[in-house]
């Protein structure tokens, strides 16, 4: 079925505006589909799916999440770029380290968070496009993560007195998050972007992909919190307790990361915000058995 | 409606055994209820609800979670009781501290984790009983958390050189978890154990209670991970990188805490494991709008 141009052009803002607070829920709609005599939503031509969902809360949450996400990146930038001494590459390994927190926050938190939101934000877009944007954002996130890892390993190995790698709990759990992210990336790519993979496998893997997507995200934020703790204690030592600017900013970065994470997980797991299938997808539906709707 | 004694006596193990792998899902059952001519499950007399659900995975997950939970407590006990020097109360503030990690792991992780699982584990029990067990386990968890806080504040305040309180990211986020836990405790108690509270309020608050229940739990585990990181760096300093026994055990404790958390959240959020209403509850059902099914 061919979709209209107007449908493609529906923007995120329209979802919130067009869905009224008192509209029936998805479940109510599915039990009692609107009849010809019932009220006809205004946006029938633009959005045949989302008229059934109350997405005002989602829209507000999405914009708040973007604000918090940008704030996370800005705080991480200010923390590493100013308070921890700024940036350099291999010429000054101690400053090369500073790419690690900034790029992890950009990749594993901000871009990753937006990547897992894609299906719920661009809900009128075709699934093929959504998959490509989801994979594209994750690819970008992955590049930042790899450079962030290169920065921290270089900063350890190239130091005048080399620092051992992979001994702290932060490094164990951080690497676990990155390894799981890589596995998830490969499995997701093979399962959903390669033609010829069976519908049975795609349906079986979907809930695993969704649940571990959220697990890796939360684990990544947890690793950031441990990393901030480590860096503040290693660099400030007993001065941490006097809460100098570096400590205040690092702590605030941690708090904002947690707020961003709580909001993203809320937006991505609330069943009421789930994207509904487009008409042309309905015959192709998988039968997901998702642990998080 | 009076329930039979045999129904009350159904044990957890029976759920897994009685539910067959190939049985229809809850959704399928609700669409096509079994007719008189259809196959009659063996456990009709014992469990009129759970026969519809495949709970083998849940049962295995539950027992694995108990193993991991006990392992968390054992590792925290060995870490604080042996590697960090053992226990004392106010006479030796530095050892009084050691109650902090142990009691937080017992309260905020193990007991809290089991408390949020109650509805899915004791699924044939009446809702009133489940609420009391849920509240009872949380009360026990809360007592451990309060003693754990007393231990850390005392260990700071009573030290020969008093240590400031509440400066680290661990303390900020840990206290946030405890404050949210307290609020959740009071709101849950008033909403669901006080008679006379309106069904509308109970239904409105349920998804908030459920979502923040999981958020507080994950935040609590995150605070534990930061706490382990802090304690290892403060106590071992540059020896952390040589991974002595204290460091290995602390790191392993962190990894097991994460595994326990991932499993508990899986068991408590997977829609397929959700407790179904008992017949006598069906007329009293709230209309939950839960962000996590």
TrEMBL record, chains A, B:
PROSITE patterns noted in UniProt: CYTOCHROME_B561
CDD domains given in the database record: Cyt_b561_CG1275_like
Q: Which cofactor does it need?
A: heme b
Recorded topology in the membrane: Multi-pass membrane protein
Whether Transcription regulation counts among this entry's keywords is no
Q: Which UniProt keywords apply?
A: Electron transport, Heme, Iron, Membrane, Metal-binding, Transmembrane, Transmembrane helix, Transport
Q: Which residues cross the membrane?
A: 55-79, 99-120, 132-153, 173-194, 206-228, 248-268
Give the matching InterPro entries: CYB561/CYBRD1-like (IPR043205), Cyt_b561/ferric_Rdtase_TM (IPR006593)
User: Where in the cell does this protein reside?
Assistant: Membrane
Question: What is this protein called in UniProt?
Answer: Cytochrome b561-like isoform X1
Q: Which organism is it from?
A: Limulus polyphemus
What's the encoding gene here? LOC106472809
């Amino acid at each position: 079925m061919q979709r209209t141009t107007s449908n493609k052009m529906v923007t995120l803002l329209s979802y919130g505006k067009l869905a009224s607070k008192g509209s029936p829920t998805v479940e109510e709609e599915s039990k009692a589909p609107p009849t010809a005599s019932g009220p006809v939503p205004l946006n029938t031509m633009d959005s045949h799916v989302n008229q059934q969902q109350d997405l005002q809360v989602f829209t507000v949450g999405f914009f708040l999440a973007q604000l918090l996400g940008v704030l996370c990146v800005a705080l991480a930038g200010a923390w590493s770029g100013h308070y921890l001494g700024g940036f350099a590459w291999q010429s000054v390994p101690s400053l090369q380290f500073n790419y690690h927190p900034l790029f992890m926050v950009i990749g594993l938190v901000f871009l990753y968070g937006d990547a897992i939101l894609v299906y719920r934000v661009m809900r009128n877009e075709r699934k093929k496009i959504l998959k490509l944007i989801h994979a594209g954002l994750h690819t970008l996130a992955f590049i930042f993560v790899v450079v962030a890892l290169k920065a921290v390993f270089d900063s350890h190995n190239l130091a005048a007195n080399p620092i051992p790698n992979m001994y702290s709990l932060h490094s164990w759990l951080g690497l676990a998050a990155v390894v799981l992210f890589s596995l998830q990336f490969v499995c997701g790519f093979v399962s959903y972007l390669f033609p010829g993979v069976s519908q049975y496998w795609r349906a079986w893997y979907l809930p695993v992909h969704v649940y571990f997507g959220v697990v890796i995200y939360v684990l990544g934020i947890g690793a950031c919190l441990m990393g901030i703790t480590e860096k503040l204690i290693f660099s400030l030592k007993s001065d941490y307790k006097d809460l100098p600017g570096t400590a205040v900013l690092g702590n605030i970065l941690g708090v904002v990361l947690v707020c961003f994470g709580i909001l993203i997980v809320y937006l991505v797991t609330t069943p009421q915000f789930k994207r509904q299938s487009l008409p042309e997808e309905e015959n192709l539906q998988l039968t997901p058995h998702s642990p998080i709707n």
